[in-house]
Write a structure and sequence with these properties.
- By secondary structure, the chain is mainly alpha-helical.
- The chain folds into two domains: about 50 residues, no CATH class; about 240 residues, Tetratricopeptide repeat domain (Serine Threonine Protein Phosphatase 5, Tetratricopeptide repeat, Alpha Horseshoe).
- Helices cover about 60% and strands about 5% of the residues.
- It contains 15 helices and four strands.
Length: about 325
């Protein structure tokens, strides 16, 4: 006898109590009761509703607060790919009296949100900006490092066409980039908020954590905190540190200080400077103990160190010099 079938038949339907009669289906929300058909599940809902929601919330919290997946490495330099440009700056270690990256971000707002990835739509791969800088220095930036296709001679229309091909192939990253173009009016696209939201939703459904984070921000600014929280949580569970840090702020504003601190600890331990800055303020206010803040500072500094390289520093200096000139 099939062992899976045997395990299923020894359990009974939560509504009618029938044992056997086919494979029972588990409630997808709480994963704790089984039914023989949809009708039984529907009839049992009024009895099961309260317990189901409580158990589903417990399962979601377990997934939400577990260690996030490791960052993807840049396929060229094999260093972790940071979420934002300034997260990999070579600065002095953060201390209780200072988070250098946060201090830099405040005075260089235009750099704080810049992405550290350079996307190649010809083969749907990304490299860090440090490696892109190295390509430029060695005059190899006209070729794709993966498929060796000629990048330098392509017109803007041809580049957009490449992205559109990836969009048609349901490439989540390409769809996210196109959404950004409509949201901000980039790359010759006319600004279209509704179209951007449609594309962000499509990218998020395909698993893009950045799309979830962006949807969280947009819903937050629109005042829809329930949807904002849902998308921040989805991005956080996928390893998006900034989304988790913002989720902590949302929880804090809702009076859920303990949950907020949990989110900031996870984000800061992965090198997210905003979360580290907030936790130091929480420590100063007596909401975080000295032993906890010391451990988080060590984890934060180690995470930042793993993302640094001479090439990334050089790229950051280049952008900083350009900003000073403007």
């Amino acid at each position: 006898m099939n062992p899976d079938r045997e395990d299923a038949t020894v359990q009974c339907c939560a509504e009618c109590g029938v044992v056997g009669g086919g494979i029972l289906k588990t409630c997808k929300s709480c994963m704790s009761v089984k039914y023989c058909n949809v009708a039984c599940q529907r009839n049992h809902w009024s009895t099961h509703k309260k317990d189901c929601k409580l158990r589903a919330a417990e399962l979601r919290d377990t997934a939400l607060f577990k260690d996030p997946p490791a960052k993807e490495d840049c396929p060229i330099c094999f260093l972790p790919m940071p979420i934002s440009l300034i997260s990999c700056m070579s600065l002095p270690p953060a201390t209780i009296s200072s988070v250098p990256i946060n201090d830099f971000a405040i005075s260089n707002v235009e750099l704080a949100g810049m992405n550290m990835e350079d996307y190649y739509p010809c083969c749907s791969k990304s490299v860090c900006k440090g490696c892109y800088y190295s390509f430029c220095e060695s005059e190899n930036d006209v070729k794709c490092p993966f498929c060796n296709s000629d990048r330098g001679s392509k017109t803007d229309e041809e580049r957009v066409g490449e992205v559109m091909k990836r969009v048609e192939a349901n490439d989540a990253r390409a769809i996210y980039m196109l959404a950004n173009s409509y949201h901000h009016g980039f790359n010759g696209s006319q600004q279209d908020h509704a179209k951007a939201m449609e594309l962000y939703a499509r990218s998020a459904e395909l698993g893009c954590d950045e799309a979830h984070c962006q949807r969280g921000k947009l819903f937050y600014y629109e005042g829809d905190l329930k949807k904002a929280k849902f998308h921040y949580e989805a991005a956080a569970m996928a390893g998006h540190e900034l989304a988790r840090s913002d989720l902590g702020i949302l929880e804090s504003n809702s009076g859920n200080t303990e949950r907020a601190i949990k989110h900031w600890i996870i984000a800061a331990s992965a090198g997210e400077y905003q979360a580290m800055h907030i936790l130091i303020k929480e420590f100063e206010g007596g909401f975080v103990g000295r032993d906890v803040i010391d451990a988080i500072l060590i984890a934060y500094n180690n995470a930042c160190a793993e993302m640094r390289s001479e090439a990334r520093d050089a790229y950051l200096r280049l952008w900083n010099d350009r900003t000073d000139e403007n």
